[in-house]
Write a structure and sequence with these properties.
The protein is α/β, with parallel strands linked by helices. 25% of the residues lie in helices and 29% in strands. Strands 5-4-3-6-1-7-10-9 form an eight-stranded mixed beta sheet. Strands 2-8 form a two-stranded antiparallel ribbon. It is globular, with a radius of gyration of 16 Å. It starts with a strand and ends with a strand.
Length: 187
């Protein structure tokens, strides 16, 4: 069965977006970007909400940008052909290799797991991840903890009132001070 992963940059105080809506503090340096790209090679489908979709639209045409370095070009080459599912109540169309979801995220994951397919089902965005976590469908949490306190905003972890036991599977510290943590859900 394809595993479901949730991976985002997060502040030390637990937010993916600050109270002002900003997340410029998550911009990766070259080494972290390489790591994210290598980790992303295992993804077979990416599920995201409207805000993340709109943020990632840049990558649909990034390969045409002459200032793009090799690391970013490699990311674009991986990102563009990847199947994406966008959950939105306001969008009427999406571009690239994306489609708008017709059902809820839990139904979509169950459908994707039932279909033949390779690679992880990656979740991007805290609100979408909260619904998936509530249904008990996240298999791994991957946080890239940035050395910043933003004081509020959109939390990385859902604020559900249920316990989830995790096992630390990997830790990596980057020269920038970012710490990557990979936790597997104990079932």
């Amino acid at each position: 069965m394809r595993k479901v992963t949730y991976s985002m940059g997060v502040s030390l105080d637990g937010y993916i977006v600050g109270p002002d809506g900003g997340f410029d503090w998550t911009e990766p340096d070259t080494e972290l970007f390489r790591f994210i790209t290598e980790e992303f090679r295992a993804v077979g489908c990416h599920l995201m909400g409207r805000r993340l979709y709109e943020t990632m639209l840049y990558w649909e045409t990034a390969e045409q940008d002459p200032s793009l370095d090799d690391v970013m070009r490699e990311w674009a080459v991986l990102w563009n052909p990847l199947p994406k599912v966008v959950f939105s109540r306001t969008l009427t169309a999406v571009r690239g290799n994306a489609r708008l979801a017709s059902g809820d995220v839990v139904e979509e994951i169950e459908r994707l797991r039932a279909e033949p397919g390779e690679g992880e089902i990656a979740i991007g965005g805290a609100e979408l991840a909260a619904a998936v976590a509530e249904a008990g469908l996240i298999d791994e949490y991957r946080s890239r903890v940035h050395p910043v306190l933003v004081g509020g905003g959109l939390p990385f972890f859902p604020r559900a009132e249920r316990r989830v036991d995790l096992e630390l599977a990997d830790v990596r510290t980057f020269p920038s001070g970012v710490v990557h943590l990979r936790h597997v859900v104990v079932r």
